[in-house]
Write a structure and sequence with these properties.
With 366 residues, the protein is an alpha+beta fold. Helix content is 38%, strand content 23%. It is built from 13 helices and 14 strands. Strands 12-4-13-6-9-14 form a six-stranded mixed sheet. Strand 1 and strand 2 form a beta hairpin. Helix 9 packs across helix 10 and helix 12 crosses helix 13.
Length: 366
Amino acid sequence: MTLAPWAASIIAVARPMPLPAPVITTTFDKSDMVFSSQWTEAGRLVGPAWMNYAPNTMSSSQSSRLDQDPLSAVLMTLGIRVGGQNRLEASGSWGLTFPMRPRFKIVACLKGQCWIILPGQAATELRRGDVFLVGATAYGIASDPQASLEDGDHHFPNPSVSIARLDGEETVLMGVSITFAREGAELLNQTLPPFVKIEADAPQATAVGRTLALLEDEAARDMMGSALVSARLAEILFVEALRAAVKAPGTPPHGWIAALADPPIGAALALMHQDCARRWTVAMLAREVGLSRSAFAARFQARVGQSPLAYLTRWRLTLARMLLDHPGATIAGISVDVGYDSASAFSHAFKRAFGHSPRATPTIPS
């Protein structure tokens, strides 16, 4: 089914590319609303760090190709934001504790070492070059596991950008909080462990560290367009962290993100994201990925944690919730775009999932 042009423009997303070097040149063309970034290495143009965004001019071939990437589609739907950037410099004996918050925190150890302390778990050491990802959980960070912990928020009064200095700089940490513009991050929260350590020798640790440094530099420069550049860097940072989390030792070999790496299940997820309005059946999806119906259903349930059609319903409604924010959207139009026979059927499904009826943003008079 062909989506309405405005819906196709929103759904079309770009895939992040590897980060070859920590130098970025950014351009913004007002005539066709294209944001582009080029990474350079030793004065040589390497290529785009992020594919161009052209919300009103995305071709159908681009949309089809890019919609096949479920991770990009989900992250675009949620709307990544930089929730806050901070830096910690410390020496001697010290310890800080932070409460649970609905965010993902990505932290790199730039110098020295420290320990991460999570409820009910043994402390984990972090050394120079290591990176960690922490989800919606309380945690502590200290010079050693036995150090007393004090309120960390007291040392970071600025919610946007803040630096805490504790008697020196034997240990230096740099971090960023990732939040989302829209509800629906449960898909990510439920599929990742609360804490992932990325070893310094992992390829993604270097990419994450470089992008964190770029975010810190962008905040320090405080130039026009900074919010846009920071948002794109945050997207790259989060994708790299998720890639590393899937490969990190101790990460559960199940969950939605890990399922993307399973060839037939990843292919099925891509099909559902590419055309969520199609009347998919388990048999159709199984045939498309070369498995029997029973083998596919069992494998999908084991990898994703729910049945294929339950996942499809969840994605349709998550996408619909975002489309409802678009000026000019109608419940009737969205219901068709995400695969429902009628606005009534869509409204009932939406209310069952979210506890309230869908409400579209009113059209703005011209």
